[in-house]
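In the design runs reported in the main text, the only information available to the sequence generator was the tokenized backbone. The following block is the verbatim input for one such run; it is reproduced so that readers can re-run the procedure and compare outputs position by position.
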């Protein structure tokens, strides 16, 4: 038996969660309730890899790991887990273990973990945690989900306006144990604890000790307010190329900071969420059951069924025309397919622009004009191409003209629907990413069938 060296090297360097032999060993050890073997298998893994393993093994194996060696799991594994698997694992861990873990985490991670704990269990967990952790978690949970107040880290570094570089460095060294694990800026605050400027750590280290902070500080600051939506926070970071930002309360007092590692997670989550919604799927985790997946997807398929039945009634109205000219039945799917694809292109551009806050009331006319003209230009190209194909196929100039004109009309309506439907849904308070595709498909099907069958009936059979 020979082994492919490249394949062997790839397996050797693959993450543990992608190593079938390793996963099988973990599942076997958990099945045998062999705690010592589980410890040996998982001891060398860092937090992200260990979280990946817990995600990839079956649920019962993950719960067994929590029961057998939960007290020894590193605290920073919990924030790395998906919310669903984390919720399942937390239910198996003793309250004192979770309380201790929250105290070892940064306050933003502690809040994220606490949000996934059952209310009754959370009371026990916070009772077991130290007072600082309890107060930080309770403060974080007082803010709405997906806001900066829930997202922010309550540890930060601030210095008074009159401080010098040397004084700040000395204080940082003296209070090293209390500093955040990672920070990029020192916020300069006034007497009321309002941030007025910021000094990058890299700039601080380059400056002489006697230099006043005011000389090297940058201002004005971009401030994040506690009630700001996390998606808006992420867009602010992208727009201004920020590594961190101060968070202020209603009175403008410094209350925390947001760092770029949290923003990366938000961008990933929001992009995935919009992508799933565009397909009419609310969520799709690897731990989802069949029943849960069916419940999430069936409602939109039901709506789709209703719109498809309505489109079919349009076709049934032209039964006589189809009976007289079978070519119409052959060509109908081409019209529907091209129109649907053109609409999807415009819709994807529109939903992305809305999500990125590029498609606003002021920019909407420009987007509508661009997508309509793009669709019409593509319609002209494919009308000519399809008319030539149909002429070569059926040798019927009138049929070729009918389908060419129908394609042009369909493409124009597809471009308009792809941009106007999500804008209209947003105007009425609906999420355009969730329901746009169903209505856009409905519009293009109805217009496509009406245009093609109606034109063919008038031009060929009247």
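Verbatim output:
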């Amino acid at each position: 038996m020979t082994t492919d060296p490249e394949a062997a090297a790839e397996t050797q360097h693959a993450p543990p969660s992608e190593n079938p032999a390793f996963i099988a060993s973990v599942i076997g050890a958990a099945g045998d309730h062999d705690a010592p073997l589980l410890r040996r298998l998982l001891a060398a893994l860092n937090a992200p890899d260990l979280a990946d393993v817990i995600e990839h093994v079956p649920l019962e194996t993950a719960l067994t790991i929590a029961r057998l060696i939960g007290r020894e799991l590193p605290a920073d594994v919990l924030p790395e887990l998906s919310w669903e698997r984390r919720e399942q694992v937390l239910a198996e861990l003793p309250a004192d273990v979770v309380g201790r873990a929250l105290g070892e985490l940064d306050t933003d991670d502690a809040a994220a973990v606490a949000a996934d704990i059952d209310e009754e269990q959370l009371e026990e967990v916070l009772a077991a945690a130290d007072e600082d952790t309890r107060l930080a978690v309770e403060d974080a949970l007082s803010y709405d989900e997906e806001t900066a107040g829930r997202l922010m880290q309550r540890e930060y570094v601030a210095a008074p306006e009159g401080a010098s570089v040397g004084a700040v460095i000395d204080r940082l060294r003296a209070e090293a144990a209390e500093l955040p694990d990672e920070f990029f800026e020192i916020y300069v605050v006034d007497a009321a604890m309002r941030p007025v400027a910021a000094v990058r750590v890299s700039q601080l280290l380059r400056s002489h000790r006697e230099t006043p902070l005011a000389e090297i500080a940058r201002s004005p600051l971009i401030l994040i307010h506690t009630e700001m939506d996390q998606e808006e926070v992420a867009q602010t970071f992208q727009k201004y190329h920020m590594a961190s930002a101060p968070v202020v309360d209603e009175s403008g007092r410094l209350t925390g900071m947001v760092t770029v590692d949290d923003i990366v997670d938000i961008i990933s989550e929001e992009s995935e969420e919009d992508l799933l919604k565009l397909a009419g799927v609310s969520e799709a985790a690897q731990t989802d059951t069949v029943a849960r997946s069916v419940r999430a997807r069936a409602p939109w398929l039901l709506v789709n069924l209703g719109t498809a039945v309505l489109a079919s009634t349009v076709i049934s109205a032209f039964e006589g025309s189809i009976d007289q000219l079978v070519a119409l039945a052959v060509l109908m799917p081409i019209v529907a397919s091209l129109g649907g694809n053109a609409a999807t292109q415009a819709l994807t551009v529109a939903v992305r622009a809305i999500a990125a806050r590029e498609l606003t009331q002021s920019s909407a006319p420009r987007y509508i004009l661009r997508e309509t003209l793009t669709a019409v230009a593509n319609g002209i190209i494919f009308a000519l191409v399809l008319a030539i194909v149909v002429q070569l196929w059926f040798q019927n100039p009138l049929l070729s003209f009918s389908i060419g004109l129908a394609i042009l009309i369909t493409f124009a309506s597809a471009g308009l629907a792809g941009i106007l439907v999500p804008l209209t849904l947003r105007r009425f308070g609906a999420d355009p990413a969730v329901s746009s595709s169903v209505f856009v498909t409905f519009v293009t099907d109805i217009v496509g069938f009406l245009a093609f069958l109606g034109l063919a009936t008038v031009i060929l059979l009247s």
